[in-house]
Amino acid sequence: MNLAVLKEGDAIEIVAPSCPIIGTDLEENYKRGLLEINKMGFQYNEGKTINLKKWHLAGSDKERATDINTMFLDKTIKAIICAVGGTGADRILDKLDYKSIKNNPKPFMGISDPTALTSALFQLSNTPTIYGPDVCFGFGGVKSDEQKKWEFSMIKHILTSEKPLGTIKHLTEWNRIKGGFGKGYLVGGHLGLYNRLKGTKYFADIKNKPKIFFWETTGKYSNVDRDLQNLIQYGFFENVVGMIIGKFNLMDKEDEYSDMPPIEKIISEKFMKYKFPIISGADFGHNTPNIPMPYGKLASIDGDKMEFQILESIYQIAQ
Question: Does residue 290 surpass a pLDDT of 90?
Fold first, then answer.
């Protein structure tokens, strides 16, 4: 099993595992994202799904799965990045060739709907998966120079270095929900989409080691309450030693409930009996620059110092 560290000039393949790109209002962002990938020093190739459309999807389930399977077998491709999220990535989980992917590992990065893929690929193939910037809203999003420098430097580091990211610099102010310290292995994604995988073979639930749960989400406050309660009842938090939560940029407080408290209070009450540290408002999620979160890699969280560290490189493959 050969896993090569990316170098400048290497080729990154772009795949659309969820919603379509061409012929939609995403095209401008997408093209801007491709230019940023070039500026970072990489070449890019476009998967067939970039130009496909079927209903709300970038091609049929077979076409989208075949695109990913083919990319992993192509020796000239050194990493794979999702074009955008949307919906439909979970429809292709049973069509991926996890054995071939495991024998031909390469970094795979996506955010939001591709939670299904980052979770499944980590769980069943142990290829390096990163919950992080996509092409349209990551590379191609409208951002300040400071935001680009902060985000793009971490993306390049995680793809091109055998050294871990280390201490993550805050781009914005983070919030302490609970203090304390924890060290464990990263797992998570979009809360609602990650939660839907529980009980399946695609669910990246690290059960035999301490874990740090990272998550961000969209939608209603009541959905957050429901999804976290589902995971509690499932026993997910028995070996969680820390939780880091992203931005709540696309959340709906549900105005019909006039006594609905801030989302942080809901989370605080729900996890009152747990001892691990909890930080919210960290720099990842929707409509914000993103810390690239590598699945299964050692990290630490200090709720007193408000510090988050990623302690392993994606090129350290677990046995």
Answer: yes
